[in-house]
Amino acid sequence: MELNTVSAVISLAKKLEEDSAKFYEDLARRYVKGRETFLSFAKGNRRNIVDIERAYYGVISDALEGCFSFNISPDSYKFTTELAEDISFSDALGKAIEMEDKIIKFYLDAAEQSSSLMADVPRAFKRVARKRNNRKPKLESLITSEEA
Q1: Distant-in-sequence, close-in-space partners of 120: CB < 8 Å, separation ≥ 6
Q2: What radius of gyration, in Å, describes the C-alpha atoms of the chain?
Q3: Best label site of 18, 90, 114, 116, fewest CB within 10 Å?
Q4: Rounded to whole angstroms, how far apart are CA atoms 48 and 51?
Q5: Would you give the distance in Å from CA 115 to the centre of its chain?
Q6: Which of left, alpha, beta for 34 (phi over 0: left; psi -120 to 50: alpha)?
Q7: What pTM did the predictor assign?
Q8: Are 66 and 2 a contacting pair, CB within 8 Å?
Q9: How far are the Cα atoms of 18, 84, 142 from residue 90, in angstroms, in the given order?
Q10: Which range of residues forms the domain containing residue 113?
Q11: Residue 102 maps to which CATH number?
Q12: Does any domain span residue 1?
């Protein structure tokens, strides 16, 4: 099922942010090491939702919503948030990095598809993608410190 409207893409963004926030909260419950990082990521996800919604509600109109079309397939950005009971810390972090990559790709794809017809929403999408990309070195450093 393709998403074609701005509101549908915003809804997908909210779902990705909420699901990944729950994932990070689960990591924080399971692992003392990295707990503060994981909780800050979850909190950041909730700020991302506010940022995106603010951009959307600031520019949305019936004409834009009715005429603007995305071509986003939610299946392309799916990730699992369940962690096996016996998953190692480094494997859980690897899963987090994979999740970040999919969400970053979603935001960059959505920004590209919306850039010609509006400015605020794609700017918000790009801003969130940058923030999420900045998480990857933090996650990688936790893996490195675990292996050391």
Answers
A1: 55, 56, 58, 59
A2: 16
A3: 116
A4: 5
A5: 19
A6: left
A7: 0.89
A8: no
A9: 23, 13, 8
A10: 6-147
A11: 1.20.1260.10
A12: no
Token pair, residue 123, equals: 């700017």
- The position carrying tokens 């919306």 is 114
Q: How far is CA 148 from CA 30, 31, 93, 131, in A?
A: 20, 17, 15, 27
Q: What pLDDT, in 10s, does the model give residues 15-67?
A: 999 999 999 999 999 999 999 999 999 999 999 999 999 888 877 765 455 55
Enumerate the H helices of the chain as residue ranges: 6-30, 35-59, 62-67, 89-114, 120-133, 135-147
Domain count, the chain: 1
Between CA 98 and CA 104, with CA 100 as vertex, the angle to 5 degrees is 120
Q: What is the rounded distance in angstroms from the CA atom of residue 114 to the CA atom of residue 69?
A: 8
pLDDT tens-digit series, residues 122-133: 899 999 999 999
Lookup: tokens for 82: 């369940």
Joined together, the tokens standing for residue 6 give: 């701005």
Nearest CA to 13 out of 57, 72, 59 is that of: 72
